[in-house]
Design goal:
By secondary structure, the chain is of the alpha+beta class. It folds into 3 domains: 132 residues, no CATH class; 158 residues, Jelly Rolls, CATH 2.60.120.1440; 234 residues, Sandwich (Jelly Rolls). The chain is 18% helix and 35% strand. It contains 9 helices and 29 strands. Strands 1, 2, 3, 4, 5, 6, 7, 8, 9, 10, 11, 12 and 13 form a 13-stranded mixed sheet that branches. Strand 3 and strand 4 form a beta hairpin. The termini are far apart. About 15% of the residues have low confidence.
C-alpha cells in the first residue's frame, strides 16, 4: 500500500492545497528520509513525461535555478542555441530523464533520484501547491474558475485617466493593489498590471470581475490585453464567449445584448463559443491583424474585417518621477561606497563612477535615459521589446569584502510585473561567458513569489543552489522602489523602501569572490541563453551603489526618505 505521506506529496505535485502543520510534516520527512526522497523522485520522474512539459515558465525557471540547468550545450558552431521556450523545456525534460533512467536497451538502473528530489524540495517548499496549465479551468473548458482567497492580491492599478468609479465597488487609486472582486467605472480609462505580468487597459463604461491571476470576467467595456512570455493562457470571459491568449496582445469589445468583437494585434488568441446545436464548445483561432464577431446565440464566431479604430488602445501607466534633493549625491557618498553611479553623464559609451578613480559602466544596446529634473536622470532598459543585447557591464570586477560583508543599493521602476534581473554578479574565476553567479538581485512574477523582489547569494559561485531571500511584499510597477540587498555578519538582509523586508541566516564562511557586474540582465548576450533565461529588465534604474560593508538601518532609511 502506498505511504500516506507519499500519497499526500503526489497530490500536492498535482495541485492539491497542503498547508499548516501537515505541510511542515511533509517537508520535514522529505528532507530527513533519503528512502522517502528516492521513492518520491521515482514517482514524479514518471509523471514528468506527462506533466512537466506543460509547466509554466516560472516553474521551469525554478527547476533550472535549483539544479543548474540554465546552461545550454553549444551547437556545432560553438554557440548555444536560442530556439525558444518549447525547445528549452524539452532539453530540461531530457536532463530529467538522463538523471533518472538508465541507458537505452538496458534494464532500468536505480534512479539517480537526489537531483530531481532537490528540485521537488525547492518547488514544494514555496507553497506545496502547483497549478499548471492542465489544471486551469475557465469558461473555455467548461469548468469553474479556480478559487482565490478574497484578500489575495491579484493586480496593481498602474494608470487612470478621468475615471468615475461605480458606486458599491472598488475605488482604487493608482498604486493600490486589487483583490478578487468587481471593478467598474462609468467614465474614463484605467490600466492594471496582474502579478503574473499581464497588463489590461479598460475603457468605460466597464464592469469587470477579477477572478484569478490568469482570468477576468468582462460584462461590459472595451479591453486591451497584453500578455508576456510565461503568462500564456490568460483568459477574458464574457457573456457570449471566452478569449484565451496564446502569447499575444488582443482587444475585446463587450456590450450586454450586443455582439462581442475580438481583434488580435500581436500573436494569436482562441475564441470559444458555447454551441447550442451540439451542447459543446466551438473554438476559433484568431491570428494577428484578424478579427471575429460573436453574435448572441450564435454557434460559432464570424470572421469580420479588422478595424483597429473600433478597439481601445493600451493606456500608458502613470510613471512617477524620481524626485531627489540636490544633496542626495553627498548623502550617498557620505556612506563611503566602493562605487556609485548616477548616470548623469556619458563619455564614449561609458557611464562614469561618482567615486574618484572607480570603474564606469559600459553601455550596450538601446538603453536610454529619462530626465526627472535638472540634476537627475535615470536609465531606461527596453526589455524584450528592444535590442536583446542591451546591458550595462562594469569595466572592472568588484570584490566585496570577505570579512565585512557587502551591500548593493539602487532605485528601480519596473514597467510591469516580470521575471527580470536588476543586478547580476558573475564569478571572475573562469573566462566569460559562463553561468556561475555569486549574487542575483531581481524582480519576479510567478505563483510562488507573487510580485516580490528576490535576492540570491551563492557560495561557491555556480549555476545552482545558494540562499534565496524574497521580499514578502509586492513592488508597484511604474513606481520608484528603493532596494538594499546586503550581507550583514551572519545574515542576508533585504530592505525595501527603507524597511527590512526579510532576512535569513548565512554561514559566515559563505563569502563571495571577485565578480563581473551586469545591470539589466542575468547573463551576457554571448552566453546564448534561451529567451526565458535572459531575464531582460524593462523599466528605470537609478542611483546604483556598491559597498564593501553592510549599511546600517539608519543609513538605509535616510537614503530612502530623502526622496520623499
Amino acid at each position: 500500500m502506498i505511504d500516506k505521506d507519499l500519497q499526500d506529496l503526489l497530490a500536492a505535485w498535482h495541485g492539491a492545497d497542503v498547508r499548516g502543520v501537515r505541510r511542515g510534516e511533509l517537508l520535514g520527512r522529505l528532507r530527513a528520509d533519503s528512502d522517502f526522497r528516492r521513492r518520491f523522485a521515482e514517482e514524479i520522474a514518471i509523471l514528468s513525461e506527462i506533466k512537466a512539459v506543460q509547466s509554466t515558465v516560472p516553474r521551469w525557471l525554478r527547476v533550472a535555478d535549483s539544479l543548474g540547468w540554465e546552461t545550454v550545450p553549444p551547437d556545432e558552431s560553438g554557440d548555444a542555441p536560442d530556439d525558444g521556450d518549447a525547445a528549452f523545456e524539452a532539453r530540461v525534460l531530457q536532463r530529467i530523464k538522463g538523471e533518472c533512467i538508465g541507458p537505452a536497451n538496458t534494464a532500468p538502473r536505480r534512479f539517480r533520484w537526489w537531483p530531481y528530489a532537490a528540485a521537488a524540495l525547492v518547488l514544494l517548499g514555496a507553497t506545496l501547491k502547483f497549478a499548471g496549465p492542465w489544471q486551469r479551468q475557465s469558461l473555455a473548458t467548461g469548468g469553474d474558475a479556480p478559487q482565490v482567497p478574497e484578500t489575495q492580491p491579484l493586480a496593481v492599478l498602474v494608470g487612470a485617466v478621468d475615471v468615475s468609479w461605480q458606486e458599491g465597488g472598488n475605488s482604487p487609486g493608482v498604486g493600490d493593489t486589487l483583490t478578487k472582486g468587481k471593478l467598474g467605472c462609468d467614465s474614463g480609462r484605467f490600466t492594471f498590471s496582474m502579478l503574473n505580468g499581464v497588463t489590461v487597459s479598460a475603457e468605460a463604461p466597464v464592469e469587470l470581475d477579477l477572478v484569478a491571476l490568469d482570468s477576468v470576467v468582462c460584462r461590459r467595456g472595451k479591453l486591451r490585453v497584453r500578455v508576456p512570455k510565461g503568462a500564456e493562457g490568460f483568459s477574458v470571459n464574457s457573456p457570449e464567449c471566452t478569449v484565451v491568449d496564446r502569447g499575444t496582445e488582443f482587444a475585446v469589445n463587450v456590450s450586454p445584448g450586443e455582439p462581442t468583437d475580438v481583434m488580435v494585434f500581436d500573436g494569436q488568441a482562441d475564441v470559444f463559443v458555447e454551441s447550442k446545436a451540439n451542447g459543446g464548445r466551438v473554438g476559433t483561432s484568431v491570428m494577428v491583424a484578424e478579427s471575429v464577431r460573436v453574435i448572441p446565440g450564435a454557434d460559432r464566431p464570424l470572421n469580420i474585417e479588422a478595424n483597429p479604430r473600433q478597439f481601445t488602445t493600451m493606456l500608458p501607466a502613470d510613471v512617477v518621477p524620481l524626485n531627489l534633493p540636490a544633496n542626495y549625491r553627498d548623502l550617498v557618498l557620505s556612506s563611503k561606497p566602493w562605487g556609485y553611479w548616477r548616470f548623469e553623464s556619458e563619455i564614449g559609451g561609458v557611464l562614469p563612477n561618482e567615486v574618484a578613480g572607480g570603474p564606469g559602466f559600459r553601455m550596450r544596446g538601446d538603453i536610454g535615459f529619462r530626465q526627472h529634473s535638472r540634476s537627475n536622470r535615470s536609465l531606461v532598459f527596453p526589455g524584450e521589446g528592444g535590442d536583446l543585447e542591451s546591458l550595462l557591464r562594469l569595466e572592472k570586477p568588484w570584490h566585496p569584502s570577505p570579512v565585512a560583508g557587502y551591500a548593493v543599493e539602487l532605485w528601480f521602476e519596473a514597467e510591469n510585473f516580470s521575471n527580470s534581473t536588476l543586478v547580476s554578479l558573475l564569478s571572475t574565476e573562469q573566462p566569460m561567458p559562463h553561468n556561475n553567479h555569486h549574487m542575483v538581485l531581481e524582480i519576479v512574477a510567478n505563483k510562488q513569489e507573487m510580485g516580490n523582489v528576490r535576492f540570491l547569494h551563492r557560495w561557491p559561485a555556480g549555476p545552482s543552489l545558494g540562499v534565496n531571500l524574497n521580499s514578502r511584499r509586492i513592488y508597484v510597477p511604474c513606481r520608484w522602489t528603493h532596494l538594499v540587498a546586503q550581507r550583514n555578519g551572519e545574515r542576508l538582509q533585504l530592505y525595501v523602501d527603507g524597511e527590512l523586508a526579510n532576512e535569513t541566516p548565512l554561514d559566515r564562511n559563505q563569502s563571495i569572490g571577485p565578480c563581473h557586474v551586469l545591470l539589466g540582465r542575468l547573463l551576457t548576450p554571448d552566453f546564448g541563453a534561451p529567451p526565458n533565461m535572459r531575464r531582460l529588465y524593462r523599466g528605470g534604474l537609478d542611483e546604483v551603489a556598491f559597498y564593501d560593508r553592510p549599511l546600517s538601518p539608519e543609513e538605509i532609511r535616510s537614503h530612502h526618505d530623502a526622496a520623499k
